[in-house]
Amino acid sequence: MQFLYHLKSGDEIIEVNNESFLHLKARRIKIGDKIIFRNFNDSYVYTYECIEILRRSCILQLKEKKEKKSQKQTNFHLALAVIEPKNIEKILPFLNELGVFKLSFVYMDFSQKNFKLDFTRMEKILIESSQQCGRDTLLKLELFENFQLFQKAYKNIVLVDFEGEDLSSFDPKDHVFLVGSEGGFSENERKKCTKKARLQAPFILKAQTAIIGVASKFII
């Protein structure tokens, strides 16, 4: 862990419980140990000292507050047709670690409408990821009920499809790359969006593989 997240980081006294406390117990935390915390709301790093260990939590006191230069943001925006939630949850840490700025979820024609996304659970996954990789922000998430609403919000959409221009011909600063669900996009969706890009993969990719590939192509 590069740091631990606590919503009240910055307060004189904080109490740590649940998963964060279990992590500290695994590290065999002792009275006097110092732990670094962040709150994702400011640019400060907070150093706390453990002053009391209880049965299911521990109490820490603020010892140092230090401003840290904000990390460079990529502003890289990806979109993904809604797929099975468990598969989405698996890719979130990868996209967060790569530094993707925003991920939009869109219910497309081939999305199963019974799939419901748990944003509270996904935020928890992203917090865990940022604690591990040291990212001082979280990947931003948003949801659109259909492709039409997504097109109203963004005018520079590129469908990552089985055909089209080479992906590298599009500037990621000026475009949003939308990866379809299994089966790609419907003919109606292809007609509504004239910009299309293809990946140079030799085989058919799952949606979760394709979106990580797109992110890696431009960021790494």
UniProtKB/TrEMBL annotation:
Its main location: cytoplasm. It is found in: Cytoplasm. The keyword rRNA processing applies. InterPro entries: Alpha/beta_knot_MTases, RsmE, RsmE_MTase_dom, tRNA_m1G_MTases_N. GO terms for biological process: rRNA base methylation. Its EC number is 2.1.1.193. GO terms for molecular function: rRNA (uridine-N3-)-methyltransferase activity. Residues 72-216 form the Ribosomal RNA small subunit methyltransferase E methyltransferase domain. Keywords: Cytoplasm, Methyltransferase, rRNA processing, S-adenosyl-L-methionine, Transferase. SUPFAM superfamilies: alpha/beta knot. Gene3D superfamilies: 3.40.1280.10. GO terms for cellular component: cytoplasm. It catalyses: uridine(1498) in 16S rRNA + S-adenosyl-L-methionine = N(3)-methyluridine(1498) in 16S rRNA + S-adenosyl-L-homocysteine + H(+). It holds the Pfam family Methyltrans_RNA. Belongs to the RNA methyltransferase RsmE family. Specifically methylates the N3 position of the uracil ring of uridine 1498 (m3U1498) in 16S rRNA. Acts on the fully assembled 30S ribosomal subunit. This is Ribosomal RNA small subunit methyltransferase E. The lineage of its organism: Bacteria, Pseudomonadati, Campylobacterota, Epsilonproteobacteria, Campylobacterales.
